[in-house]
Amino acid sequence: MSLSKLAIACSVALGAMTLTLAPASFAATDTKEPAKAKAVKAKPKAKAVKAKASAKEAHPLAMSVVDKEESDEPDTAGSASTDFNCELGNKITIYTNATDDKHIALRWKKRLHRLSRVGTTTGANRFENRLYGLVWIGIPAKGMLLDSKQGRQLANECKDSEQAKPAALVEAPPSLGVLPATGG
What we know:
It is built from four helices and eight strands; from the N terminus they run H-H-H-E-E-E-E-E-E-E-E-H. The protein has helices at 3-21, 32-58, 65-71, 161-164, and strands at 80-85, 91-97, 100-108, 111-118, 125-129, 134-138, 143-147, 152-158. It has an eight-stranded antiparallel β-sheet, with helices on one face. 11% of the residues are buried.
């Protein structure tokens, strides 16, 4: 047997083995049949992916309660407002309600956002809106607004009218200088 006849015999044998191992839908003699089988199998996956994506966007009730609260514009009626002047000319207004210390409303760039208190170990006041990525951190000396989604500062050195006042001059201790000498 020549080498070329042996190669042909091997390829025929491999082809026959492939047909016996292949699924029934691919063993058909019609060449259009395998394409239909693949298309039928691909459709359920595509529909499932579309269904998952649309379920997240489809209905407002699909949002969590916290996301829904953070997306709504808060009501500031009856709230005390504090204006902050920040570096680079940025301005922020914070609305607080005496009956709710767990939330604030923050006006930034003509938009009012609801932020929720987050506990800290340092004693700083930290409020977040996870939906928009806003973080307000207030300490006695200043406040700052951060964008947690982009990892950057939006406003820094934010001070209200009390914080902007210059620190009172510290009274100097009495002089410990040498007493004038008396004639003698």
